């Protein structure tokens, strides 16, 4: 459970602490010094290094085989025309919901999913005892995160065990609900069905079920060292993934998916690794894993040359594989190729170049190449925001302008982030900083944003950063009545993030005098 230190801090700031006579601040700071924020700007407002590897059915396909719905202006005009003809049509309302969901407007999507579900239940133009009725209803309920979504999908499958809509979405529901055994069983049955024309979809969800089933163990900090000593094939039941692929040895797409599942497992294994002080992952794979990575490099180079899969997925995979072995320049080369070659017309919410942009940004941050990081981030925003706005991109832009002391532009990007999520922790804590730096410690609006951000703390990292942020303001504004509060809260931060103990001790030694 998080101990929200910040609420205590800001009550104490305006009180004369009875114990403050034994604690004083060592230094005084002028307005120019405060802008420098003790050199902690990048420590507190740190751009995250996001690394992910997504696997989907489209990754094993050629571009010409991928024909997704294009959620663009033409699509919007089309469904607007349909809605004008029948404003209560549940399928049209669902199309509106999907449009807004895929263009980053979650609140409007929820409104239209709700309308669609209501009208489907009351006025569906299909029999209410049909598989289609229940499968469509279940999908609407899934999008609204309703508990009975699985129940309706199961009703559809009882009526028609081969209902394509239910079969495609059922394993996803089960995995989301952490019913992994059930999900694997459903997928196994589909894999064993000789009449199944698309066994690769069942294989994909079976494999994801295997990996996600053990994810909590990998996230367990108490077992981090123990897990690090295991290969990725031991962390997850890769034997069952291999056995499942053996059922369809002649299916090339399953063969390619199996190789991608290896990369996914190796990616998740990084959660067990240590990080450097500037949060770079120390890639520490064992000999077995290194051998596997090198073989996968050869495999995907061959797939790329022989055009067995689309060039985006091949280059994406190679970029990640070279990242694993610290060959960062080759990783950058393949990441850039993947981004360049990805066709905008094939983009979906689950098949896109976003993850490669984030890998490329991480690689530039690791190299301390700020120019190319900023260039890549701006390119990503320009290319992808018309499809879906990313709050992380906007807060990262705000941080970049903060680093340049351009507070006005930093605030502008914070406000853009809050248009997507008004309660975003990063945006609120940065707005608090900008206002307090500009108007002083007693800035009402700065205190307001700081209080609001404290309500949005999600983990110990957020708590640590906000608490250090608050203590730093006390140091900068030099009221000795707050010295004890600053000391206590920095000390408490050691318990939140023990690996930052050295940093906390240095902060105390540099700025707080403990008098006998």
Key phrases:
516 residues, mainly alpha
- What's the shape? globular
Strand order of the largest sheet: 1-2
Mean pLDDT: 89
Provide the helix percentage. 55-70%
- SSE order: HEHHHHHHHHHHHHHHHHHHHHHHHHHHHE
Protein name: Tetratricopeptide repeat-containing protein
Pfam families: TPR_2 (PF07719), TPR_8 (PF13181)
Keywords: Repeat, TPR repeat
InterPro entries: CellSynth/LPSAsmb/PSIAsmb, TPR-like_helical_dom_sf, TPR_2, TPR_rpt
Care to describe what's here?
The chain has 516 residues and is mainly alpha-helical. Helix content is 66%, strand content 1%. The chain contains 28 helices and two strands. A two-stranded antiparallel ribbon has the order 1-2. α18 runs antiparallel to α19 and α24 (425-439) runs antiparallel to α25 (444-454). The protein is globular.
State the gist of this model:
By secondary structure, this protein is mainly alpha-helical.
Give the topology, please.
Blueprint lengths: L5 H7 L10 E3 L5 H6 L4 H4 L28 H13 L4 H13 L3 H18 L7 H13 L5 H11 L4 H13 L3 H13 L6 H15 L1 H5 L4 H5 L3 H4 L2 H9 L5 H18 L17 H19 L5 H14 L3 H14 L12 H13 L3 H15 L6 H13 L3 H14 L4 H15 L4 H11 L5 H18 L5 H14 L4 H11 E3 L2
Antiparallel strand pairs: 1-2
